[in-house]
UniProtKB/TrEMBL annotation:
GO terms for molecular function: carbohydrate derivative binding; DNA binding; DNA-binding transcription factor activity. One of its GO terms (biological process) is carbohydrate derivative metabolic process. Pfam families: HTH_6. This is MurR/RpiR family transcriptional regulator. InterPro entries: Homeodomain-like_sf, HTH_RpiR, RpiR-like, SIS_dom_sf, WH-like_DNA-bd_sf. Residues 28-70 form the HTH rpiR-type domain. Transmembrane segments: none annotated. The lineage of its organism: Bacteria, Bacillati, Bacillota, Erysipelotrichia, Erysipelotrichales.
Length: 264
């Protein structure tokens, strides 16, 4: 299930203050989880817009309807990504917990390095270099990993895409006829869950897909044309650090392979 709060934050981060939807997004964020108990008519009345405007905005954010948008407010807080023992340790001995957490991150990253398939990495980089369009997809925090990858590739004159809004992602991928490489970051392998519209778009003949995930049993692996399975698991939310390390390494290698940068 998509997180409605994150979808609203993404919208206001890339919109203008004089936009009707911008004001609506701010009002919806201020209403918070109270929305779960309100009808679309009541929400519209509170935001001084029509119910049809609320409905259109929900679809614009990538939700099927207002009901699905409301359900997206029923998300657990980020603290549930961590084990009870880890949280207890953070409360009782923060420094010890932080050191243990760092040790887990370091071990995971080291295992990723030891098992790294450089041939596969270079194959992925060749796809990024050759394809006319490269699009990064990911939910919530992992979306920003795509933007980070995008920004760094631009230093080597490779223009790629990382759209904030689902509607823009779907629109671009629907309209493009050029060879397109879609890179999905989904540690849990659930990116396409409840996203039938994106599933249909990614089946286009001109689109080639790869998923980066830690879930070797994810249905995404069979759905996509290729997969990069990262080491370990996402216990206490450590998987994102290993992925970020991999992205940094891939960016540097891309520059060395395809840009011939001047080394200091």
């Amino acid at each position: 299930m998509r997180d409605s709060k994150q979808a609203l934050l993404s919208y206001i981060n890339c919109s203008f203050r004089d936009d009707l939807y911008y004001v609506l997004a701010l009002n919806l964020l201020k209403m918070g989880e109270d929305i779960k108990n309100l009808t679309i008519d009541k929400v519209a009345q509170s935001c001084f817009v029509s119910p049809s405007t609320v409905s259109r905005f929900c679809r614009n954010l990538g939700f099927s309807n207002f009901i699905e948008f409301k359900e997206g407010f029923d998300q657990h807080t980020i603290i549930t990504n961590y084990s009870k023992s880890f949280l207890n340790n953070i409360q009782e001995n923060p420094k010890e917990a932080a050191l243990a957490h760092w040790s887990d991150i370091n071990s995971l990253t080291e295992n990723q390095i030891q098992s790294l398939d450089l041939v596969k990495v270079d194959h992925i980089l060749s796809k990024i270099h050759e394809k006319e369009n490269v699009v990064f997809l990911g939910n919530q925090f992992l979306h920003f990993y795509g933007s980070y990858f995008q920004q760094n590739l631009q230093y080597f004159n490779k223009t790629t895409y990382s759209f904030f809004q689902d509607v823009d992602q779907v629109s671009f991928l629907t309209k493009t006829t050029a060879p397109t490489y879609v890179i999905i970051f989904s540690l849990g392998g659930t990116y396409l869950n409840n996203n039938s519209q994106m599933v249909d778009v990614l089946r286009k003949d001109n689109i080639e897909t790869i998923v980066f995930t830690q879930n070797e049993h994810s249905a995404l692996i069979n759905f996509c044309d290729d997969a990069f399975v990262l080491e370990g698991n996402n216990t206490n939310d450590i998987g994102k650090y290993s992925l970020l390390f991999l992205i940094d390494m891939m960016v540097m290698r891309y520059g060395l392979l395809y840009s011939n940068p001047t080394l200091a």
